[in-house]
């Protein structure tokens, strides 16, 4: 980045603009998830068919991963970020307002495409803003996403209570967020000074350096833990421990709130222990929390264990992205894209993998995979190098 761009990137407007994009991504997801029962009823799908249809968003994820891998470093991160954010906001009311299965499938594919496409450039810009500011910021940016999810879910709950249709609810929220994006979007810093010229561009295979492959592996394991705990914490508490659906929901809520709390506190932890030290502490906390959950199959230990797991996993991805975006000789966007490629299948495979293992053994035994993932990732974290 040029000195001018650094000055712009280190300012308050740039930080607010980045936070807004994270809120856009989180609020649309939270609003959608809160209205799933109403949308499912509008399309006439039962639970089994809904599960099958909802998985079609993975097709959009794959397309996005291919596109962003090719385009990042060639097209400015700001342009990619704003384009993807606009598509997220435009698609949200269409997806939420779907009244037929074909419309729902199209909306889900576009959601997967736009949301996954947005993740890489906004994180690359977040790394640039953090570097220009000279202090840890990545965890706080990801906390903005978590706040967006909670706000979107709360608005969805309120809209359902007053009888507002999901499509209308998402149109209102998209309109408000879109207006804010028009005001602050130009404050996103440009990475023009960091993009290599045509003659300097490396073949794609050279992007996967040993350090970036290592970071992608940590991202995979961290996302596996987050995905598995998100999908199975309530089931473990409600069914395996026979505590009922209300306490199952409470266990998941504790896990989610712990993630937000961890991200709000994460930047202070990085400043105290350094990026690698903080990453290892986080991953060991993941392993300890998962071990507590499965060691004593009782409600207090389950809630405490999932809370610890949430605190630990909260800042794994922000820490890995910060390291990936600062690799010597690799533009931030390209480094982040490698982590994105590693992270995505971890979250996708976590639910089915734990479910299959639970079918063969038990859910308690299957959740030992979270302990193994946390310990394995902590070992990998010890081999990471922290660029100056």
The radius of gyration over CA amounts to 20 Å
Mean pLDDT: 90
Beta-strand proportion: under 5%
Number of helices: 17
Biggest sheet features: none
| Shape summary | globular
Number of strands: 0
Decide which structural class fits the backbone. Answer: mainly alpha
N- to C-terminal distance: 16 Å
Counting copies of identical and different chains, the oligomeric state is single chain
Low-confidence stretches: 1-7
What is the N-to-C succession of helices and strands? HHHHHHHHHHHHHHHHH
Helix fraction, binned, reads over 70%
Structure description:
The two termini are 16 Å apart. The chain has helices spanning 3-9, 12-34, 36-43, 47-54, 57-71, 77-96, 101-133, 138-162, 166-184, 210-240, 245-273, 275-295, 299-313, 316-324, 332-360, 363-366, 368-381. The model is unreliable at 1-7 (pLDDT under 50). It is 80% helix and 0% strand. It is built from 17 helices and no strands. It is mostly helical and 388 residues long. The longest helix has 33 residues, at 101-133.
Task: Provide the descriptors you would attach to this structure in a database record.
388 residues; mainly alpha; 17 helices
Write the layout of secondary structure elements.
Layout (H helix, E strand, L loop, with lengths): L2 H7 L2 H23 L1 H8 L3 H8 L2 H15 L5 H20 L4 H33 L4 H25 L3 H19 L25 H31 L4 H29 L1 H21 L3 H15 L2 H9 L7 H29 L2 H4 L1 H14 L7
């Amino acid at each position: 980045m040029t000195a001018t761009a650094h000055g712009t990137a280190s300012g308050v407007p740039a930080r607010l603009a980045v936070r807004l994009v994270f809120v856009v991504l989180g609020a649309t997801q939270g609003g959608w998830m809160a209205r799933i029962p109403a949308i499912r009823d509008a399309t006439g799908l039962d639970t089994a068919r809904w599960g099958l249809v909802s998985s079609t968003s993975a097709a959009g994820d794959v397309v996005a991963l291919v596109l962003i891998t090719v385009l990042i470093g060639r097209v400015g991160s700001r342009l990619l970020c704003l384009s993807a954010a606009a598509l997220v906001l435009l698609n949200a009311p269409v997806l939420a307002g779907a009244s037929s299965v074909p419309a729902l499938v199209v909306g889900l594919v576009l959601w997967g495409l736009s949301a996954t496409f947005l993740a890489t450039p906004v994180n690359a810009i977040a790394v640039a803003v953090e570097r220009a500011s000279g202090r840890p910021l990545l965890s706080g940016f990801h906390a903005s996403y978590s706040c967006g999810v909670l706000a979107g879910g709360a608005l969805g709950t309120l809209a359902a209570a007053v009888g507002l249709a999901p499509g209308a609810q998402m149109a209102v929220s998209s309109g408000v967020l879109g207006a804010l994006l028009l005001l602050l979007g130009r404050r996103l810093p440009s990475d023009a000074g960091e993009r290599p010229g045509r003659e300097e561009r490396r073949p794609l295979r050279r992007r996967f350096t040993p350090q970036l492959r290592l970071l992608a592996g940590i991202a995979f394991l961290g996302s596996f833990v987050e995905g598995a705990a998100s999908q199975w914490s309530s089931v473990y508490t409600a069914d395996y421990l026979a505590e009922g659906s209300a306490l199952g929901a409470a266990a998941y809520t504790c896990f989610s709130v712990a993630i937000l709390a961890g991200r709000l506190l994460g930047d202070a932890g990085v400043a105290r222990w350094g990026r690698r030290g903080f990453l290892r502490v986080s991953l060991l906390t993941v392993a300890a929390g998962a071990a507590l959950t499965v060691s004593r199959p009782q409600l207090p230990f389950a809630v405490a264990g999932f809370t610890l797991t949430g605190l630990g996993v909260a800042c794994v991805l922000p820490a890995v992205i910060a390291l990936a975006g600062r690799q010597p000789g690799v533009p931030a966007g390209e480094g982040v894209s490698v982590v994105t490629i590693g992270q995505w299948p971890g979250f996708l495979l976590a639910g089915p993998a734990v479910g299959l293992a639970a079918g063969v053994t038990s859910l308690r035994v299957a959740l030992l995979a979270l302990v193994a993932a946390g310990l394995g990732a902590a070992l990998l974290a010890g081999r990471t190098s922290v660029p100056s």
